[in-house]
Amino acid sequence: MSDLEALRRTAERYALGADRRDKALWREVLADEVEITGPGFAISGLEANLGSIDHLAQAFTATRHVVHDMDVRVRGDRAEGETRSTAEHRMATAEGDMLLVWAIRYQDQWRREGDSWKFTRRTLIVDWEELRALKGTGS
Prior knowledge:
Blueprint: H1 3-20, H2 23-29, E1 30-38, E2 41-44, H3 46-59, E3 62-75, E4 78-93, E5 96-113, E6 116-133
Parallel strand pairs: 1-6
Antiparallel strand pairs: 1-2, 3-4, 4-5, 5-6
């Protein structure tokens, strides 16, 4: 697997971990000292960031994160770049189920650890968001 394929896999495992509420997947892809920041938050350290999965479970009935494309530069055992994604958040409200959709970009930094890559930093940028009534009934 090339470095670029491995970096994409890391981003996809992060997304899958969020959607499945699977902290083990995040442990695979987050460095111990990882820092994740975004609008209104900054979380440092692996254990503290794993708590974000608990927040997702409390705030949303389901999520779906899709990794679209990446622009990455690899320099030895370090990499940096941008990961573009869509994040969909299903919410139960008094008016019925709603879907909050974010067009997002992550400014990412990775470090190679053995045969894998781990995030050392992710900065979440929300380019725009949309809130709409959810018509589907699947769970």
